[in-house]
Structure formats: C-alpha cells, structure tokens
Amino acid sequence: MNYLRNYLNKRQFLGAMSAAFLLVVAGCNAPDKSENHAGHDHGETAPHFTYKGSSPIKAVSTTGMIHDLVKNIGGTHVQSEALMGAGVDPHLYKATPGDIRKLSNADIVFYNGLHLEGKMADVLAKMSERKPSIAVATGVPKEELLTSDSTTAYPDPHVWFDVQKWIKAGEAVRKSLKEFDPAHAGDYDKNAEAYLKQLRELDAYA
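The structure assignment produced for this chain is given below.
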C-alpha cells in the first residue's frame, strides 16, 4: 500500500482531520513575510529547465508524502528519494550537510511549498536558481486552501489531509515531469492516471 493510503486509512482519517485543524489554529510556525521564499506562493513562475541526461532522473523530495507522488508518477524514469523520514516535523526541519549534497546532486527537487518547509526556505531558493524546484502544493487553487485570519498570514500547507487537494498536487508533479522530460511524457501520463485513480478510490473510501 502506498504512503498516503497507510497514512489516511479508515481508523486514522478522523484523527488526521483533527490534527490538520489544530495545526491551522496553532499557526504552524509561519515565518515572517519578509523572508525570501522561492516557489512558495501561488502564481510564481519557476525557470524552465529541460533534462538532457539519461534515465533515471534523480529526484529528491522533502517529505515522504511528496516522495510517494514522485515515485509513482515518475515510474522507471525517476529515481526518487525523500529527505525527511516519518514523524519528522517539516516546519522545524533544518537541512543537514548530507541533505545539501543530495539536493545538489539531484536533477529535480520537489517540495510542498506554502511555507511548510520554513527552515529550508533559503536552501530551496538557491536550488531553484540552478535546477527545477517544484512546490507541489501550488497545484491546489488558492481559493481552495484553508486559511485562518486570526492565527497566520499563510494558507494551511497540510493539503495531503484532503485527498482531493492532494490529487491536484499529483497533477503538479505530472506536469513538471512532462515539461522537464518531454521524451517520456506519455509514460508520466500513464503512471499518473493509474496512481491518481488509486487516490480517487482512497477518497471515496475515506
């Protein structure tokens, strides 16, 4: 079973919704607006990159949930790796020297965006200047994001708690891989359709 199915099974679903609500109320340690955050806001355009190497593409994702999307949609053309393990708080996570090496050696980087990886903002900003760095949560339309006027200036980044929203994050992964590696666009479409079908079934089950 995939990462998200394990995370959002029938017994955990209500607890996950409660946790999401509490994290929104808590403000999720939102960073100051004056900080430089590349690719975290809706409407921001990333530089265009096209892959010129050989398969598999080396992809690094910040969290396990994103890694699950990339691994399934990328298939045999992508070698996917996650920086953070289960139980790690991405808000407080600071990149280690080993993480910097992994990001530097990657061909493409995927992260949540919406200030989820607050402590890694500068690192991700620098990476976006040299290689495609995709904020998958920006695939969710701004009007569909949860906000709280009283606690934070930023939308709730925990979009994987809503499978319908996470499907849209998956579409962002599909689009990015097709643009980066157009030679295998058909395979990315095929993989994405199969995996997003599983997510739709999970949504109906939950």
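Interim note for the steering committee: The two ends are 15 Å apart (CA to CA). The chain has a mean pLDDT of 79.
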